[in-house]
Amino acid sequence: MTPARAGGSGPRHDRGVAPSPVLPSDALLRRAAGTGEPLADAVAAELDADRAVRRQHERALTAGADAPAVTSPAVRALARHLEGVARAAPDAVLLEDARANFTVPFAVHAFDVGAGALVSSYRPPGAAAVLVGTGSLVGNAARRLQDTARWLNAAAVPGWLRPGEPGYVETGRVRLVHALVRRSASVPGRVEVSQLDTARTWLDFTLVAPRCAAVLGFPITEDEHRRLLRYWRVLGELLGLDPALVAGVLERRDAEDLQARIAALTPPPSADSRRLTAAGLAAIAQGLADVTGVPVPLARPAVRVVARALHGRRVSRQLGIGRTGGAHL
Question: Fewer CB within 10 Å of terminal CB in the chain, N or C?
């Protein structure tokens, strides 16, 4: 039986109701906050010593772990894990459930993913500090939006998570990027871009984005959401997410429960969160102006109006998404 829906006041089990036995325990979530991803981290460590390892990683993604050019044990181990996950996924998931990614019109993703999921990913202060520290995301937010869109579009196509296919290759690249960011942001006693961060981002795409699409008038059905979650459990494991963290997320209310419990372990947004949010929304406004011809001075308040509607007053205030006077009308 699926537990009752989590409310806004906190995790269900804090109100005297036990969490679903198939969802991760709070102890596992706390451990996840201090855990990286050993396979990709090992490749990132080798890259520090030999830049040619990146070419081997690319070759392994396109030609397989046992390709003659792949001599790095770390690259081979990572590629074998990726191949194992992809090959174990049934066709019903990779071909049929993948179609749930396309129940919302493509143009809506500029808002439900861009102004919704990605802005939500800026909320945790630790992750925001890492992203600001890279030095590129604030000054070149449009590039991050484009990179995310390219990966998401490829990863969503039915059949494209099979080894060697474009979605598989892009996902393997993203997994290594996360490891490189984790390594560059290494702080003694703390893990950045942890398993908990990855689970939170997984929820941004599987819960926050559909919720934002519904606000915009494009809701998906419960069956479509279950199919989306099945597909993303495979995609999450390809990204290096511990499958135990999301194995029990079978439907919307499970995702809401997990999100509430992770939120209880996450500090409120920081100044870095607000900097990233401002840069991201400005990039979306510029993109809207480029596509539609709407002048940027008009596109910016329009984007802020939508963002405030997606995130609500409290979160919008925490993220520095200002009011727009009467523009919301």
Answer: N
